[in-house]
Design a protein that fits this description.
Layout: E1 5-12, E2 22-30, E3 36-43, H1 48-56, H2 68-76, H3 81-96, E4 101-105, H4 108-118, H5 120-123, E5 126-132, H6 133-144, H7 156-176
Parallel strand pairs: 1-4, 4-5
Antiparallel strand pairs: 1-2, 2-3
Helix pairs in contact: 1-2, 6-7
């Protein structure tokens, strides 16, 4: 039985794990009541050629909410990807022990693809099951016509907080509308 969730959000240069790269990661470990047990956030270093493409040509990045040049500077100064992977593995070892971590988040399948490609040692520590809040969204919209509006911040830590809040919203709604 799982005892905790590993909420993860990645910000990437695009959506193709084989050709795009990870720019930022945030992770939060919670219990099933939503209580935060630990968190981690890190900008991932990328080489100058990738950062130049972000600044000049990547259409996804054009609508990035914060100052583009400032974020690119942060990426230039970020930690190497292998160090970030090792720090995340250490976080899991500390909080999950031998328990495989259940990955949670919104549209987490694509984040998992990036982890499989770029951080395979981390991926091996994860349970095959995932808790995808976007599946809840589809169900709640289709079955109850419920539409949860969240801001697209495109910063990893803020997106995790939004995902946790969205799941809690659905849980609260279901409790309030439960029939005996």
């Amino acid at each position: 039985m799982p005892t905790k969730l590993l909420w993860v959000d990645l910000e990437m240069t695009g959506l193709d794990a084989t050709s795009d790269v990870i720019l930022e990661v945030a992770a939060e470990i919670t219990d099933f009541q939503g209580n935060k047990l630990a968190s981690y956030s890190q900008i991932v270093h990328q080489p100058d050629d990738i950062l130049r493409e972000l600044l000049n040509a990547n259409p996804w990045y054009e609508n990035y909410p914060e100052n583009k040049a400032e974020f690119i500077r942060k990426c230039a100064e970020g930690k190497p990807s292998y160090e970030v992977e090792n720090e995340l593995i250490a976080l899991l070892a500390e909080h999950f022990g031998d328990e495989p971590a259940i990955l949670a988040g919104n549209s987490i399948y694509n984040d998992r693809n990036f982890m499989k490609h770029w951080w395979p040692k981390l991926d091996q520590k994860l349970h095959y099951r995932m808790l995808d809040v976007s599946s809840w969204k589809v169900f709640m919209q289709g079955k109850y016509g419920l539409n949860y509006e969240k801001q697209d911040v495109h910063r990893a830590y803020d997106d995790i907080q939004a995902s946790i809040a969205e799941l809690q919203y659905y849980e609260t709604w279901l409790k309030q509308h439960a029939t005996d």
